[in-house]
Amino acid sequence: MAFTYTRGSTPSPFPAARRAATSPCRGAITALTGVQVDGMLVVDLNGSVRLVNALGGIDINVPYAIYDPRYPLEDGSRDVRLYIRAGQQHLNGHFALAYARSRHQDDDYHRMERQQLVLLALRRAVNPCSLIPRLPALIDIAGQSLWTNFSIKDLPDRLALAQRVDTKHIGRFTFFPPTIPEYLNARAVAKVQAMVAGAFSRATAPPAPSAATPTPGVSGSGSGC
User: What are the residues facing 83 on neighbouring strands?
Assistant: First the structure.
């Protein structure tokens, strides 16, 4: 799998425009799922490439090969031929983005599944101990390519929450026809909301009693350095 890449210029960020553009997206997600979206974090295409590279790449078990004869490079310079083999792959930033973004082989529903696989792989690649020496690069990426409406004071709580995510037990939804019709009606939206509500109720259910409670960072899947 290969394509050539030429770094292009990155447009200047416009925070006000980003805020205006993300508001309808937040509203649509809330209306569809019934879950209030409290905040967003947005990374542009070039930032996505740099982020994956800063993490050392991501590992994905690609379920089927991807071939795109007209994949547009993230810098907008030209189209290239893209091929990613099926099977276990270690993808750098360019290929991780291409795997999530390519749209000429299949439809948006399959692209949605691929994007979910990339997000899960990113979470698996984030290890606080290994990120310490990469902090300068990550801070630079955040300054150039990242936008969020979360306050800086929210950051510690968000990071602590991310560390508690068990990537082996993450529920994923793909709202495909015929289960969910392509053109939504009130009945379909209610079905989506019921599916999402069921997942949240399972996630927030109290754990079963046990003889001992493991101490984070000491046993089990703790993240102590």
Answer: 67
Residue 81 lies in a domain: yes
Nearest alpha carbon to residue 52 among 98, 113, 1: 98
Amino acid residing at 46: N
Tokens encoding 14: 């416009």
Q: Is 25 within a domain?
A: no
pLDDT digits (tens, 9 = 90+) for 28-75: 888 999 988 888 878 888 888 989 998 899 999 999 999 999 999 888
pLDDT at 90: 97
Q: How many CA atoms lie within 13 A of 133 on its CB side?
A: 4
**Which regions of 107-214 does DSSP assign to beta strands (E)?**
146-148
Cβ atoms of 57 and 73 closer than 8 Å: no
- Whose tokens are 């089990």? That residue is 220
What is the number of structural domains in the chain?
A: 1
pTM: 0.69
Query: In this structure, is residue 133 part of a structural domain?
Result: yes
